[in-house]
Amino acid sequence: MAPYESDDATGAERDEDLPTGRRKAARYVVPVAVVGVAAATIGLVPALADSGDPDLPKITAQQLIDKIAKSDVQQLSGTVKVSTDLGLPDLGGLESGLMSGAAGGGDGSSADPQSKLTELVSGTHTLRVAADGPDRQKLSLLESGSEYSVVHDGKDVWGYDSKSNEVYHSATAESGGRHRAEQPPATPKNFADEALKAVDDTTSVTVDGTAQVAGRDAYKLLIKPRQSGTTVGAVSIAVDAKTGMPLKFTLTPRSGGAAVLDAGFTQVSFGKPAASTFDFTPPKGAKVTEGKESGKGRAPEHAPQGGEHLAKGLNGATVLGKGWTSVATFDTGGKGGAPSGDQGGALGGFLGSLGDQVSGEFGKGTVFSTRLVNALITDDGKVYAGAVTKDALVKAANTGK
Fold first, then answer.
1. Ramachandran angles phi, psi of 78, nearest 5°
2. Could you give the CA distance from residue 10 to residue 240 in angstroms, rounded to a whole number?
3. For a surface tag, which of 154, 180, 304, 397 has the fewest beta carbons within 10 Å of its beta carbon?
4. 10-residue block means of pLDDT along the chain (401 residues)?
C-alpha cells in the first residue's frame, strides 16, 4: 500500500537498483519504444484550468483514493480537451503511424479505433463523450471540417471516419468491461485508472487543495515519485467532490516547464443521454471493414503495476527495476543500432533529430529523448525505454547485460 500523506514527502530520494532479466521479443522499430511507451503513459494527464478554490470539507488522501474507487457514474455527457506536448519534432503525421504500430496496428481501416485514437499522442484535440451504463458509450474526435466517432452499443462497436467515409465494425463476445479494456484511454476516468496503477511505496500521495473544473467543485490529488532518475515530476488529478469521478489531470515533467500531458472536462452533465446518441447506421456508400471478434478464449489479465504498466504497450517486453524508474526492455533481433537518415528516410531523420550517442558496459548505443519518455537502442539491437533519465537507461542496460 502506498503512503497517503497529509503533507509532501520530504525523505531523501534514492535510485532503486535494477534487477536483471530479459527475453526475446517481437521485432519493433525504435521509435515505437519512444512514442509507444508515451502512449502507455498517456494515462497520466493534464493542467488544471481552475476557476476558483471552493471551500470543501477536509479529506485525507486515503479517503480521496477511496472516493475515486467507489465512484460509480453510469450516465454522463460532456466535452473533453486533450493536449499533449512530448517535445517531438513535426513528423508530418508519421507519429500517428508509429503509434498505430505500438497499439497493435489495427485492421487496416482509417476508422479502426485502435489506430485513430492514437492521434491523441500529439497536439490539442477536442472530444465529445457520452455514456449510459457499461454497454453504451460514444466518443467523437472533432477535427477541422471532419469528425471521427466510435460507438459502443451492446456487443457492437462502430468506428466512423467522416473524412474518408470509412466504417469499422466489430462484434465483441462480451460487452461492458471487456470492450473498455480493449480501447485506448481517452477520458479523465481512463487516465486516472492508469495513473493510480503506478502508485506504490515509491510514491508520495497527498491532497493539494481544491479547484473548480467544468463548473464543478473538486479536490486535487497530487501524486509525486519519491525516486530520482525518473522524468516524471508530478501528476495532479481533479476529483469531483460529489461523485468522486476524475474530471481533469496534469502531468508535469521533473525538468519543469509546461505540462507534458493535459486533459479534462470543459463541460460535463451527469444526466441520461438521449437513446439516439448511440444509434449508428453506416452511411450510404461508406466502405465497411469488419474487425475480428474479440473477447473469446483469452486468459484473464492481472492489472499491471508500476513499470509493468509502461511495458504493457510493447509486445514481449520485460521490465527492469521498480516503480517510477522501471525500464521496459526487448530485443529487436537485429544489429547495427538505429537507422541513419540515409538508411531510414523520414524515420531515420526522426531518430537523428533525437539521438545522443552513449556507451557503457553494455557497449555502445543511441538515446532518443522526449520530454517524458526516453529510449536507448544498443548497437546489438536491444531497446531500453521508460520515463527515466539517460543515466538511468545506461544503468539499466549495464545491469541487463
1. 175, -175
2. 28
3. 154
4. 40 36 31 38 37 86 92 93 79 43 56 80 89 93 89 93 94 55 58 77 93 96 93 94 94 90 93 95 93 50 41 63 89 64 47 76 91 91 92 91 60
Q: 3-class DSSP state for residue 335?
A: coil
pLDDT of residue 88: 67
The three-class DSSP label of residue 326 is coil
Side chain identity at 3, as an amino acid letter?
A: P
Q: How many residues does the chain have?
A: 401
For the purposes of burial, counting CB atoms within 10 Å of the CB of 37, is it exposed (0-12), middle (13-18) or buried (19 or more)?
A: buried
pLDDT at residue number 364: 93
Burial of 75 (0-12, 13-18, 19+ CB in 10 A): middle
Q: Report yes or no: 169 and 289 within 8 Å, Cβ to Cβ.
A: yes
Residue 349, Cβ neighbours under 10 Å: how many? 17
b vs e for 224-258, b when ≥16 Cβ sit within 10 Å of the residue's Cβ? bbbbbbbbbbbbbbbbbbebbbbbbbbbbbbeeee
Q: What is the pLDDT of residue 272?
A: 96
Distances (CA, A) of 267 to 119, 173, 198, 304, 318: 22, 33, 28, 31, 40
In the three-class reduction of DSSP (H, G, I as helix; E, B as strand; rest coil), residue 19 is classed as: coil
The grid coordinates of residue 190 equal 481512463
Domain locations along the chain:
18-43+73-187+259-401
Q: How far is CA 291 from CA 157, 287, 303, 313, 326, in A?
A: 9, 13, 26, 20, 34
Q: What is the pLDDT of residue 77?
A: 95
Exposed/middle/buried for residue 9 (C-beta within 10 Å: 0-12, 13-18, 19+): middle
Phi-psi region of 391 (alpha: psi -120 to 50; beta: other; left: phi over 0): alpha
Q: Please give the single-letter amino acid code of residue 55.
A: D
**Judging by DSSP bridges, how do beta strands 363-369 and 287-290 pair with one another?**
unpaired
Distance separating alpha carbons of residues 227 and 221, to the nearest angstrom = 19
Q: Please report which residue ranges of 21-165 form alpha helices under DSSP H.
A: 30-31, 37-40, 61-70, 94-103, 113-116
Q: How far is CA 281 from the centre of its chain?
A: 30
Instruction: Report the distance separating Cα 233 and Cα 300, nearest Å.
Output: 33
Q: Calculate the CA dihedral of residues 264, 267, 270, 271 and round it to 10 degrees.
A: -150
pLDDT for residue 338: 56
